[in-house]
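ok, trying the design again with the full structure, not the truncated one.
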């Protein structure tokens, strides 16, 4: 087995090109990523004596063979696919235009509500919710107790909930 440093170097040098090549071959980004990973697994597990003159050529040859194998394995399924005309009425999992507009308005409302918080309360809220700092870290940074941090966070959440409730009550949903 090749040492970890040279494998890491080979991975870093070639993974992006290998994925791009495989995306062109299989026309699916997720499958291309899986095949690229499988390519490296095959290189790692192979007993090649590690006198490889051109690691890039080896990687691309293995990737090409994996893409061919993938194509052959899925060729049998191609005849069993649904006709696109039959799928016109299938619901999409994506949000509709109304949901997108509503979500954007809600986000704008939340941003404005956060801006109206008292300065220290806003800073503590942002540190906790967006920076991921714990109550203890924030308390140490501001020279206050954890209990004071919790009170600021509760005050911020009550304030934001009030603004969200006003937003929902001002909208008519039918």
């Amino acid at each position: 087995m090749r040492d970890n440093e040279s494998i890491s170097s080979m991975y870093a040098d070639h993974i992006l090109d290998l994925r791009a090549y495989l995306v062109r071959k299989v026309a699916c980004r997720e499958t291309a990523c899986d095949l690229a990973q499988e390519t490296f697994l095959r290189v790692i597990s192979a007993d090649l004596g590690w006198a490889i003159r051109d690691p890039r050529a080896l990687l691309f040859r293995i990737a090409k063979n994996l893409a061919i194998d993938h194509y052959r394995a899925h060729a049998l399924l191609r005849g069993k696919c649904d006709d696109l005309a039959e799928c016109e009425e299938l619901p999409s999992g994506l949000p509709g235009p109304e949901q997108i507009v509503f979500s954007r308005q809600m986000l704008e409302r939340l941003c404005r509500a956060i801006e109206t918080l008292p300065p220290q309360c806003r800073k503590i809220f942002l540190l906790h919710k967006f920076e991921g700092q714990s109550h203890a870290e924030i308390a140490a940074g501001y020279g206050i107790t954890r209990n004071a941090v919790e009170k600021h966070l509760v005050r911020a959440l009550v304030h934001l909930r009030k603004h969200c409730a006003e937003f929902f009550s001002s909208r008519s949903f039918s």
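Keeping the full-length input from now on. Residues 4-80 form one domain.
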